[in-house]
Write a structure and sequence with these properties.
Bound molecules: S-adenosylmethionine
Strand content: 15-25%
Helix content: 40-55%
Radius of gyration: 22 Å
Structural class: alpha/beta
Strand order of the largest sheet: 5-2-1-6-7-11-10
Number of strands: 11
Shape: globular
Distance between the termini: 8 Å
Length: about 425
């Protein structure tokens, strides 16, 4: 069945922790802005409810969770273990007694910290830890993490909720600023350190975050969301059922490293213990360029079995020629991105039901003024992978460069 595109209805969406890891300017904004929740809900609401919805790049779980709130069955696939954990915590159902138990644990942690009854955990092994946090905040976080580990021993769900509260606090106390294209460090303001040096003041921040987390955790979706840890290039070996709808915002070929942005959470929560591991995860992620991933890209050769239309080859050659030092590396980066996406899209054809609809929300990019027409490539790859009526809708302008846009590339199985 082939359907034509409809306009996406506007929606008001209540932002809860279920959509956000930390609020305001303190992080995780770009992956789950209110905008992307609205976009996903808008697309969902153009289909009948009670269907199977897939997001092969599910990140913090916006699509599967939004589907579950509508009474659908949402499935997400995510390669990053921390994001998989976080999305699973958001997707779980929480009963009143578990929430009450977690409230008691917050009081218990408060009492332990006030009594000085806690041995702090080691500082996280992230490089340049003092650049991320000033000493008083770091000392507090080591104590708080230890108190959570010691207190919440009997219930994994209770501990998970406390760790979400902890994650929100650790990013609020950090010197990282996430309000640019990429993360940077705020200029140090010494008065801030003094303001927060008193641990009870900091605990108040944790308590406030926990109230927010618990209030939203109790808002259980009627449907089910399942998040799988895995590589979407091999989706057919991960997902067995056929889906009626796919909505995803895959990585863009823009050199953004999710690992780089997520390092503070991942080191504190034990998902990373050294830089090499970070590079390994980024190498397996599509579009990753962090650490070891960059040096491997330099040696990567374009395989024959890719999808290499003339206009892509031309863009790749132009990028390679533009700059002696990194042109070839960036050309390889873009080529590998599309090679991986091509492998992925061929697999997607196996997990969509006949007539099933796919939406890839993608952004184009440019390197040395060479525009990479990402939306055309997705459209043409979907067509080549056996999808029908592949088409492109421009959604919005992206960033400050005038040629950069975000698109919804749609097609039907
Ligand atoms: C733009 S983000 C998705 C954001 C998501 N919509 C959300 O609500 O947070 C793209 C995600 O794709 C993941 N990813 C990259 N390569 C992957 C792969 N090969 N398989 C599965 N997930 C992958 C990244 O870790 C990242 O979380």
């Amino acid at each position: 069945m082939t359907r034509t595109r409809r306009t996406l209805p506007r929606q008001n969406v209540d932002l809860t922790f279920k959509y956000n890891l930390a609020h305001g300017r303190h992080g995780w904004l770009r992956l789950t802005p209110a905008y992307s929740v609205k976009l996903v809900n808008g697309i969902l609401n153009t289909s009948d409810s009670g269907i199977a919805v897939l997001d092969p790049f599910s990140g913090s779980g916006t699509t599967p969770l939004s589907a579950a709130y509508r009474g659908d069955t949402g499935t997400g696939v995510e390669i990053n273990p921390f994001l998989t954990w976080f999305a699973r915590v958001k997707a779980a159902h929480y009963g009143a007694s578990l929430l009450q138990q977690t409230r008691h644990r917050v009081d218990e942690i408060d009492a332990r910290l006030s009594a000085g009854d806690v041995t702090p955990v080691e500082r996280p092994p992230i490089r340049n830890v003092k650049r991320w946090w000033d000493d008083p905040e770091l000392a507090f976080l080591c104590l708080l993490k230890a108190a959570i580990d010691e207190t919440a021993t009997e219930s994994a769900e209770c501990k998970n909720l406390l760790l979400v509260g902890f994650s929100r606090v650790l990013i609020r106390l950090s010197n990282a600023a996430f309000n640019h294209q990429s993360m940077s460090f705020k200029k140090r303001d010494d008065s801030q350190g003094l303001l927060f040096a008193h641990a009870p003041g900091l605990f108040w921040m944790f308590r406030t975050e926990m109230e927010f987390v618990l209030a939203s955790a109790g808002d259980n979706p009627p449907g089910k969301a399942e998040i799988l840890l895995g590589d979407s290039r091999w989706i057919s070996s991960l997902v067995r059922r056929k889906h009626a709808l796919l909505i995803t915002s895959p990585p863009y070929p823009n050199r953004m490293s999710y690992i780089r942005e997520l390092r503070p959470y991942m080191y504190w929560l034990g998902y990373l213990t050294n830089g090499r591991e970070a590079g390994e995860i980024d190498w397996s992620a599509i579009g990753g360029t962090w650490g070891i991933a960059t040096s491997r890209l330099g040696e990567w050769e374009r395989p024959e079995n890719g999808f290499w239309p003339k206009y892509l080859n031309k863009a790749l050659d132009d990028i390679a020629k533009s700059d002696n030092r990194s042109g070839r590396l960036l050309s390889n980066y873009v080529a590998k991105y599309f090679y991986d996406m091509w492998i992925h899209l061929q697999g997607i054809a196996n997990v969509m039901a006949a007539g099933g609809e796919v939406h890839y929300i993608v952004g184009n990019s440019s390197f040395y003024k060479v525009l990479v027409p990402v939306e055309l490539l997705f459209r043409d790859m979907l067509h080549e992978a056996g999808f029908k009526n592949a088409q492109i809708a421009k959604i919005r302008k992206r960033g400050s460069k005038k040629e950069l846009y975000e698109y919804d590339v749609t097609a039907w199985r």
